[in-house]
């Protein structure tokens, strides 16, 4: 009974305060992105291109041209007594110059994550690749949110 009352209360409260999920399909802005230039780390650039494919359509009136510059760093954080690296820091810097008919914007997004070194080199590379993909996904999500707010 308490759960039912709590659920009803939450539904009424959330509906009356104007709550909307950020990533709902209703909130997706309708715009198109065109990558005019991309330079920097090839693997990161390919991931960015792949993630922005969804927005490369000519159906919408609002069009943005992107100039993308990326940088990737793998920094050593700690070493053990034998001199073997135990922790790394992965840093992806992405600078987006966004050009529209009305305005030009510049957005720099920096994402980083710390990872532990693994005994198996192949497994460590796969994990690093997975972390790169996750960081690029968060960069693209943040970019799309910023572009949505620019309109």
Distance between the termini: 46 Å
Rg over alpha carbons: 21 Å
Do you know the CATH topology?
Double Stranded RNA Binding Domain
Low-confidence stretches: none
CATH evolutionary superfamily: Lipoprotein like domain
**What composes the largest sheet?**
4 strands, mixed
Main-sheet strand order equals: 1-2-3-4
Q: Helix amount, in percent?
A: 25-40%
Order of helices and strands: HEHEEEH
Helix/strand/pairing category: alpha+beta
How would you describe the overall organization of this protein?
The chain is an alpha+beta fold and 151 residues long. The protein has a single domain (25-150), classed as Double Stranded RNA Binding Domain. Helices cover 37% and strands 35% of the residues. It contains three helices and four strands. It has a four-stranded mixed beta sheet with strand order 1-2-3-4, with helices on one face. The radius of gyration is 21 Å and the shape is flat. The chain starts with a helix and ends with a helix. The relative contact order is 0.15.
């Amino acid at each position: 009974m308490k759960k039912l009352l709590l659920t009803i209360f939450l539904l009424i409260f959330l509906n009356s305060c104007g709550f909307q999920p950020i990533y709902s399909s209703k909130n997706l802005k309708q715009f198109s992105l065109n990558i005019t230039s991309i330079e920097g780390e090839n693997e990161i650039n390919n991931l960015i291109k792949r993630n922005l494919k969804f927005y490369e359509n000519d159906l919408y009136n609002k069009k943005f041209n992107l100039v993308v510059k990326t940088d990737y760093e793998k920094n050593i954080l700690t070493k053990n007594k034998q001199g073997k690296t135990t922790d790394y820091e992965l840093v992806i810097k992405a600078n987006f110059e966004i050009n529209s008919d009305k305005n030009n914007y510049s957005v720099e997004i920096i994402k980083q994550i710390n990872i532990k070194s693994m005994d198996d080199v192949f497994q460590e590379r796969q994990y690093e690749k997975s972390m790169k993909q996750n960081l690029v996904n968060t960069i693209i999500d943040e970019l799309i949110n910023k572009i949505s707010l620019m309109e």
